Amino acid sequence: MKKVTTTIFVLTAITLFSFTKPAPPQDSKTRGKALYETYCLTCHQDDGSGVPKLNPPLSKTTWVNGDKKKLIKWVLSGSTDKVPIDGVTYDNNMPPQDYLKDEEIADVLTYVRSSFGNKSSAVTPAEVKAVRATIK
Ligand code: HEC
């Protein structure tokens, strides 16, 4: 009798376990947030506000919310030119982020374009791939 009880218990456990679904895949914005925290946050800050005179904000800037091709190119190439950002110059350089995969650039820019008060459309890996091909 004990054996039967054990068998039933084991079968129930296996059945329950097989019904437990794996965690749902994360969406682009969620993955982008994690990438942002790893690769961009130190300079552009948690809330995208930047650091006065050093690193520009990513909230509501023309670069972030404007032409996606220019934005992707900027992030892949970085900048040492002290380009004025909406009329203000910043002393730091932005290192090229071209070590990130197409999907990663797409995810991080999708996150940035829909956070910090920004409400712009998502960026796809295909768009990043197309821009990367023009700068290699
Ligand atoms: C070492 C500091 C640093 C890191 C890390 C960094 N940036 Fe920047 N970023 C800068 C600086 C400095 C500028 C402005 C450079 C200039 O004006 O020439 C800039 C400019 C920008 C701009 C264009 C201007 C604006 O504010 O809209 C975007 C977009 C941007 N960065 C996104 C990112 C993203 C996304 C990441 C992470 C993948 C990142 N940056 C990582 C320092 C950094």
From TrEMBL:
Q: Would I find Heme among this entry's keywords?
A: yes
Keywords, alphabetical: Heme, Iron, Metal-binding
Q: Which residues form the Cytochrome c domain?
A: 27-116
Q: Which Pfam families match?
A: Cytochrom_C (PF00034)
Query: Which ranges of the sequence are coiled-coil?
Result: none
- The superkingdom of the source organism is Bacteria
Which Gene3D superfamilies does the UniProt record give?
Cytochrome c-like domain
> MF terms per GO, please?
electron transfer activity; heme binding; metal ion binding
InterPro entries with a match to the protein in the record:
Cyt_c-like_dom, Cyt_c-like_dom_sf, Cytochrome_c-type_DH
State what protein this is by name: Cytochrome c
